[in-house]
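Standup notes
- DV: blocked on the single-chain target, sequence here:
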Amino acid sequence: MPNTKSAERRMRNSARKHDRNQSINSRLATLEKNYLGFLAGGKKEEASGALRRVSSALDKAAKTGVIHRATANRKKSRLAVRLNALK
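- DV (later): unblocked, structure below
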């Protein structure tokens, strides 16, 4: 338990940020899973729309500091390669 008022405040802030980050990470995982489902089904049009949504969400998460910028770029690149490999 925190001993000072500032420690109490930091604990509250930390819990609030943790919940927000968890929510964003969960949404990223869901979007990526949907995209991979479209790829597995061979639905190139839907997959390209899903890739746009995933890329946007990754950029927003990187902008707010939920994930690192390089991590977002790496994931976007690997997902795009998988779409381009689909014939």
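- Follow-up: Residues 5-85 form a domain with the Methane Monooxygenase Hydroxylase; Chain G, domain 1 fold (CATH 1.20.58.110).
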